[in-house]
Design a protein that fits this description.
Strand 2 and strand 3 form a beta hairpin. With about 475 residues, this protein is mainly alpha-helical. The longest helix has about 30 residues. About 35% of the residues are buried. It has a 3-stranded antiparallel β-sheet with strand order 1-2-3.
Length: about 475
């Protein structure tokens, strides 16, 4: 029986970890042991008072002793930002998050344009004795209304941090559909809870939909890390950035929202829309599994873990195992091939083979990187590159008037049978013509005309031969 590879293991992790950490545990804590949340914050307080100052001082002094700028290091450790707010994830965006930017713009514009007299009419569920139109309009519009600037800025900050990373992974239009669906999920959950509790609570704000996006994030990006600011000696607007697992941070918010929802159900007063938060979160969380986001997450997680391990000198072997599994699934994965090019640099058998595979992929996907890599190993491994890649490089250097490199690449392409031979032979003639060796040029033009009759290359060679 074949051993289980990294993708098979991660598929299981992608299913179990978010359910356990982002749903079951925080749900139980919020419903039955909310005092554990207070204990957690007491631990954070202890960390802020006892450990954090020493960490900042030690790191700054160490950097200063090692020759770095004292103030530059201090500014790296301390950020002039409010405490408790996430500052972004460590996952790179794969595109521009147009929908997230548009949603933030719409929320901001509506906050400025819509008067405070109109906003209560758009709350959902509507206030008592509402007009008929308030139900269908308020069902969605309540999520674009905000009470004040702090309400708006807080929501938009969370939307940006979790939304921009998520949108570039699930796609722009799908992200928009999921966002709107989370608005609906939060609204329906609020109505359901109000009916069960026999009470009425109206609200405005995007927090229900954003909680839904966080629920999706917990599934699709469970391996992400988020940087959060911890207060430094309780100084206002002075925080120490600390990177934590996003799943832990999201779980903490869900636990607090669950505890708040329980208190409201039991009759406590609160201005926070906990029911909307929980409803949106649960809807987004389970919708993600229905749409198969956990399978996409497992695939990306293997690459992210491999990349993190390669940054650690002691994690190279584990990274190599992960990248080997990646190449079995994606033979042309550029990140994996780049890793192995460095990993096998002392191996004379494997290094040129990896180089050849990487050049082949780069000439199809990123010519600038292909040229940079080729220049680093010019002539050393030129015989190992594929003919198709050699032709592309030869044409690149010909257009850049680097005739010697073009000639070497085109000769590799010409000498190996395949559809690239005709073009490589023709342009070898052009290269020698431009180099001033017209006799050699006519030989290649004649060869093109004789070996590849009836082709456009042969017809062009005939014209060049006569000129």
């Amino acid at each position: 029986m074949a051993s289980e590879n990294a993708y098979q293991k991660e598929n299981r992790v992608a299913l179990i970890l978010p359910v356990a950490v982002a749903f079951v545990i925080p749900g139980i804590v919020g419903l039955f042991q909310p005092e554990l949340i207070d204990a957690f914050f007491m631990f954070i307080l202890f960390l802020v008072l006892s450990v954090l100052p020493g960490y900042v001082i030690f790191r700054t002094l160490y950097a200063w002793v090692m020759g770095d700028s004292f103030f530059r290091t201090l500014l790296t450790c301390l950020k002039p930002l409010p405490a408790g707010l996430p500052m972004g994830s460590d996952l790179k965006n794969k595109a521009t998050p147009y929908i997230t930017i548009t949603l933030i713009a719409i929320n901001t514009i509506l906050f400025i344009v819509v008067s405070n007299d109109i906003k209560p009419l758009l709350a959902f569920p509507p206030h008592r004795h509402p007009s008929w139109w308030q139900y269908p309009i308020g069902f969605f519009m309540h999520a674009f209304m905000h009470a004040n600037w702090s309400h708006l800025i807080g929501n938009m900050l969370f939307l940006w941090i979790f939304g921009n990373t998520l949108e570039t992974r699930i796609g722009h239009y799908r992200f928009l559909v999921v966002y709107i669906a989370c608005i609906a999920g939060a609204a329906i959950f609020c109505c359901l809870m109000a009916a069960i509790a026999g009470t009425h609570r109206s609200g405005i704000g995007a927090s229900g939909a954003i909680s839904g996006i966080m629920g999706v994030f917990a599934v699709r990006c469970y391996f992400a890390r988020v940087t959060i600011g911890l207060p430094f000696l309780f100084l206002p607007m002075m925080t120490v950035p600390l990177r934590v697992q996003a799943l832990v941070l999201i779980s903490l918010f869900f636990a607090m929202d669950t505890a708040g929802s329980r208190d409201i159900f039991n009759g406590s007063a609160s201005n926070v829309g906990y029911w909307a938060h929980v409803g949106g979160y649960l809807f987004g969380f389970f919708l993600s599994f229905f749409l198969g986001f956990h399978l996409q997450a497992a695939k990306e997680s293997v690459s992210v873990k491999a990349d993190r391990l390669r940054q650690n000198e002691f994690g190279k072997k584990e990274a190599a195992d992960l990248y080997m599994d990646i190449l079995e699934k994606e033979p042309g994965n550029i990140e994996a091939l780049t890793f192995f090019l460095d990993y096998y640099k002392q191996n004379p058998q494997k290094h040129p083979y990896i180089y050849s595979m990487l050049i082949k992929e780069l000439t199809s996907k990123d010519m600038n990187q292909a040229v940079a890599l080729f220049d680093n190993f010019y002539l050393r491994y030129i015989s190992f590159i594929t003919s198709a890649a050699a032709l592309k490089l030869g044409m690149y250097y010909y257009n850049k008037c680097e005739l010697e490199k073009s000639r070497n690449c085109l000769e590799v392409a010409r000498n190996k049978p395949g559809p690239w031979q005709a073009k490589a032979t023709l342009f070898l003639g052009k290269v020698f013509h431009d180099m001033g060796n017209k006799d050699r040029a006519r030989q290649f033009f004649a060869e093109t005309r004789i070996r590849f009759p009836g082709t456009d290359f042969a017809r062009e060679a005939a014209k060049d031969e006569q000129s």
